[in-house]
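Morning, I've got a small favour to ask if you have a moment. You're getting the sequence in one-letter code plus the fold written as tokens. Thanks so much in advance, here it is:

===
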Amino acid sequence: MAAAKAKNMKLQVKHGSKVHEVRLQAEQGNVLTVHDLVKKINEVTEIPPANQKILYKGKTLNKDLDVFLTDTGLTDNAKVMLLGKKPDPVDDKEMGKLHNIEQSLKKEEEKLSEITYELDGVHRGFLEDSLKRPALQKSRKRIAHSTEQYMKLLEALDGLNLDPSNSGGRAKRKSLVDRIHTLLDRCDGLAKGIDDMLARLAANIPL
């Protein structure tokens, strides 16, 4: 049980022809976990966690980052093997683009939330009748613009040239694509709702 509470450890990390001596020190009050090793290897080799595969006696260590290091069988001065590589400069550039796309998506999501809030106010009767039609027409245009922006973001994501080994980047891209498709469905639903409300107003039917 004492071994499971190791707070410091020295390991030999073999990566290709190089061997890195890695010294691990847990933060105050904590004990060493696989996450600490992954983080340290990232610092020493610049290989991102998503690209790392850490092997010890034929077993992959970094499947569960919360496991105590000593629970994996590691002891002081043990040697582990590291597989993986740093993203090449092209991939770094593509990851920068991916980050920018994610930030743009967040801004568009905020705009869509504002539109949804405004539409809810119209539906609940918070606007005078004479103001409802202009407000709905304005929201309809804003939704059309959001839809156009989401389509542009999808095109930008599709155009990214991520290295096949960059599993983290590729997973992030898929997550963003899924989010955008969900938001496009939401835009479609809101647009149909607005069209329905405009039709009801035209027919002098209460919303």
Remarks:
- The beta strands are 8-15, 18-25, 53-56, 59-60, 79-83.
- The CA atoms of residues 157 and 173 lie 7 Å apart.
